[in-house]
């Protein structure tokens, strides 16, 4: 039996979130988290009983900040505040997106910094473990908390209970849509990035590319951490290949889409590591205003709902991926072009019909890559308006847009990498090198176990079966052995 993921508000990872959201893993609250929630809620109730003015807890919000609330109407205010923000539009989030949101909401509560009652967290645990779904609209957040998306969930999940003082502001001043979708994208891209050096190595075999780019001398000359990681990944796959012997490569200088492979892959790895640091923090950081400080026995006004660091992490990640996918489409274009590859037109034997072979698939690859490249544009520079709430909310991070773009990019990258792999395998068959590397041999066999070589009367196979197999493998090609 698979152990449930323990949620403690301090140590959630993107991989754990993905296991729960996408893999259906169960969750449990850590005992310490329940204790911290109880202590923080007791502090909130003490402050409320003293009659202190606290934003969103004992006063109104936004343009009416500072207007005291009637204690007898806390429950009504909380309900109507949720309804006020229940204005999301656009497409509905998928089940895995909703589950990712629920995980982030639960982890945030478990930290004890929200000051909500433990019962709210336990209801989230039950929703996750029973597979309960919610209708959540994806449009409507500026990145200064995902208020409309949270309202979609809270109005449904907590419809049968009255929310206590400060609980609605704690719920809506959070960013579970941005963080949840960003974490799903991050986990997917991690697997893809670790697999891409293997695919690149097979493309090099199919092209007859010069492996000097991954030599120890080349790596020493430019000591970038990502470059070294990429070069090691490619070189390990080419071990034993005829390319590595004297006279193996076709040219002294290949096109840059091949020659710069360690650089473009390395840059993606370095961008990923920058994003990893920020996303790891944001997964377990507070997005609330105010925050509950049990240590200082007070509620502290902050701007933790500003998700600039998450947007910057996701923007950097997408920008790092962009050269990788454009390089991939250039490699595919070179492999199917007889002038560049020295192989048959479209990577199939000439026949009386004059069919173009893999050229059609290369066009599809180019179209998908164009979409991916356009998604890389950064969002942290956006400022839709400074007039909302009397100018109080005068900057935004657009983190939910950054997260949605990154998740869409990750999905496109699956097809981009899968098509390159399929074309590379066909190029290897046509070139028929004397000896493949140890890793590229396994990878080529994996592809041929799913899609046949195209030739003669055999039509160019559709990439869907290979993409389905990669999905089952979770795009971890390193697991091939």
Overall description:
The structure is a single chain. This protein is mostly helical and 481 residues long. It has 2 domains: 170 residues, Fumarase/aspartase (N-terminal domain) (Fumarase C, Chain B, domain 1); 283 residues, Fumarase/aspartase (Central domain) (Fumarase C, Chain A, domain 2), CATH 1.20.200.10. Helices cover 55% and strands 4% of the residues. The chain contains 18 helices and 6 strands. The strands form 3 sheets. The chain has a two-stranded parallel sheet with strand order 1-2. The protein has a two-stranded antiparallel ribbon with strand order 3-4. It has a two-stranded antiparallel sheet with strand order 5-6. Strand 1, helix 1 and strand 2 form a beta-alpha-beta unit. The two termini are 26 Å apart. The mean pLDDT is 92.
């Amino acid at each position: 039996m698979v152990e449930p993921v323990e949620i403690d508000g301090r140590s959630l990872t993107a991989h754990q979130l993905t296991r729960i959201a996408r893999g259906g893993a169960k969750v449990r609250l850590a005992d310490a988290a329940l204790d911290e929630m109880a202590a923080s809620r007791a502090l909130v109730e003490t402050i409320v009983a003293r009659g202190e003015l606290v934003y969103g807890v004992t006063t109104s919000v936004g343009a009416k900040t500072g207007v005291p609330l009637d204690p007898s109407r806390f429950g009504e205010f909380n309900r109507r505040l949720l309804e006020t923000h229940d204005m999301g539009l656009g497409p509905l989030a998928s089940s895995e997106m909703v589950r990712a949101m629920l995980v982030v909401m639960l982890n945030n509560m478990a930290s004890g910094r929200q000051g909500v009652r433990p019962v709210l967290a336990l209801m989230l645990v039950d929703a996750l473990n029973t597979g309960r779904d919610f209708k959540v609209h994806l449009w409507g957040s500026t990145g200064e908390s995902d208020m409309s998306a949270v309202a979609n969930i809270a109005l449904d999940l907590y419809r049968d209970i009255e929310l206590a003082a400060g609980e609605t502001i704690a719920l809506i001043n959070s960013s579970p849509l941005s963080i949840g979708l960003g974490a799903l994208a991050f986990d997917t891209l991690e697997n893809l990035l670790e697999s891409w050096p293997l695919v690149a190595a097979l493309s090099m075999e199919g092209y007859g590319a010069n492996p000097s780019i991954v030599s120890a001398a080349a790596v020493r000359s430019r000591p970038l951490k990502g470059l070294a990681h990429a070069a090691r990944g490619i070189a390990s796959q080419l071990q034993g290949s005829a390319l590595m012997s004297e006279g193996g490569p076709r040219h002294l200088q290949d096109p840059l889409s091949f020659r710069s492979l360690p650089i473009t892959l390395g840059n993606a790895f370095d961008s990923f590591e920058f994003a990893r640091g920020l996303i790891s923090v944001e997964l377990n950081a507070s997005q609330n205003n105010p925050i509950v400080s049990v240590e200082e026995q007070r509620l502290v006004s902050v701007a933790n709902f500003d998700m600039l660091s998450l947007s910057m992490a996701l923007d950097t990640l997408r920008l790092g991926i962009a050269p990788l996918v454009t390089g991939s489409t250039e490699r595919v274009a070179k492999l199917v072009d007889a002038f560049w590859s020295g192989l048959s037109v479209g990577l199939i034997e000439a026949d009386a019909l004059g069919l173009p072979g893999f050229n059609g698939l290369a066009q599809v690859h180019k179209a998908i890559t164009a979409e991916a490249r356009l998604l890389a544009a950064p969002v942290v520079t956006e400022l839709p308006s400074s007039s909302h709430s009397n100018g109080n909310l005068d900057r935004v991070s657009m983190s939910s847009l950054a997260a949605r773009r990154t998740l869409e990019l990750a999905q496109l990258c699956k097809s981009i990498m899968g098509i390159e792999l399929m074309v590379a395998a066909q190029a290897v068959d046509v070139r028929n090198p004397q000896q493949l590397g140890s890793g590229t041999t396994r990878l080529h066999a994996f592809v041929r176990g799913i899609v046949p070589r195209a030739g003669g009367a055999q039509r160019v196979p559709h990439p869907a079966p290979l993409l389905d197999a990669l999905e089952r493998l979770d795009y971890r090609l390193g697991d091939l052995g």
